[in-house]
Amino acid sequence: MRRIVDGLTDRAGNLKPGRVYPDQMGAIVRHGSDGLELVQSRWGLPSPKFALKTERDPGVTNVRNLSSPHWRRWLGRDNRCLVPVTAFAEPAGKGRGNQWFAAADPDRPMFFAGIEVRDWTSVRKVKDGQTTDDLYAFLTCAPNAEVKPVHPKAMPVILTERAEWDAWMGGIAASELQRPLADGALMLIDEDDA
Length: 194
Known about the structure:
Structural class: mainly beta
CATH topology: hypothetical protein yedk fold
C-alpha cells in the first residue's frame, strides 16, 4: 500500500491475509490528521433507522442511493476512503455459493470507492452489547459485462487509476464516479484463487 498511495501513514498494524466479510475488520485508506492513513475499520455502515426492527444494527455493506438523507450526510470528502481489494465476490444464486472476480490485469491495483464513519456507537452483536467502532462501506453501481450475468443489479464502484483515487479522496461528487468498471477489466476466478 505504501508503494501505491503517496505519503501514506500505516496505522493498521499487522494485517492478516485472507478474505474480509461483512462486520469484520478490513483495511481502508482514509484522511488522517497529517494526510492519508491506512487503518483497520469494521465493514458495515450504520443502517437507516426505518430498517431496524430491534436495537441490533448489523450494518449496511454498500451504498447505492446517493439521494437518501441517511447517506448524504456522509458523502463529503471527510468521510471518503479507499478500500483496497485484490478480488471480490458476488452471490452466484441460491445454492451456488459465490463467484469471485479479480482484475484482468493482475498488476493493476483496485480500490472500492468507500465511505467511512468514525466512533459510531451501536449494538452490532447482542452478546457484545454497545461498541464504538470506526465503520466503512462502499458505493455500488450498475454491473459491467463480467458481473451482470452473476449479479444483474449492482457491483462495487472500482477505482483503478491514480487520478480516480485522487478525485474520490479530493471530494468529487460521488455521482461522477458511480459507474461500472469498463467491460473486460475483470475476470472470473475460482474461489481457491481469491
